[in-house]
Automatic annotation (TrEMBL):
InterPro entries: COQ10_START (IPR005031), START-like_dom_sf (IPR023393)
Domain Coenzyme Q-binding protein COQ10 START: from-to ranges: 60-136
Highest taxon, organism lineage: Bacteria
Name listed for the protein in its UniProt record: Cyclase
Signal sequence coordinates: none
Length: 157
């Protein structure tokens, strides 16, 4: 299983503000926008969804990867966990973790995935790892006014 991680800083944010921003993260419909776009600029803020199944997708080469993931938020532990329910991955799971760091909130995104096609692993996994981390990195820019990726993506095999 390939794993990816990003360390993110929400500058000048409160812990609950950062937590809720991630829970509100909604992608535009695949037919209407790029997975890079943040869909938070609407007139009404998206509701905070603390658990349940959400559709997800991202741009992948010349098409889209699509899946549904079940999310569970654990505010008291500073975690949002997600796991694949169905879609283009054979396995996909991970978490967002949150902690106060001075006047900022440090956030870590971690995910593991597998397409379930061992013969294509060396080709597909690096492309998917880049697509996942790029989507998260770009989404962070719209979540809060001072969101930024602290360091580059980490990838393991």
């Amino acid at each position: 299983m390939r794993t990816v991680a990003l360390n993110i800083v929400f500058g000048g944010a409160r812990l609950d503000e950062a937590f809720d921003a991630v829970l509100r993260w909604e992608l535009p419909a695949p037919e209407t926008g790029s997975s890079w776009e943040w869909n938070g600029g609407t007139a009404e803020a998206a509701p905070v969804i603390t658990s349940g199944v959400r559709p997800r997708w991202l741009d992948f080469r010349t098409g889209k990867l699509r899946w549904n993931e079940e999310i569970r938020s654990h505010r008291e532990d500073g975690e949002i966990r997600f796991v694949l329910t169905d879609g283009d991955f054979a396995e996909f799971a991970g978490r967002w973790t949150f902690r106060t760091d001075g006047d900022d909130v440090a956030v870590r995104f971690e995910a593991g995935f597998d397409f379930g096609i061992p013969s294509m692993e060396s080709l597909l996994d690096p492309i998917a790892a880049t697509a996942v981390t790029a989507t998260i990195a770009r989404a962070v820019l719209g979540m809060v006014p001072r969101g930024r990726v602290e360091d580059g993506p980490e990838q393991d095999r």
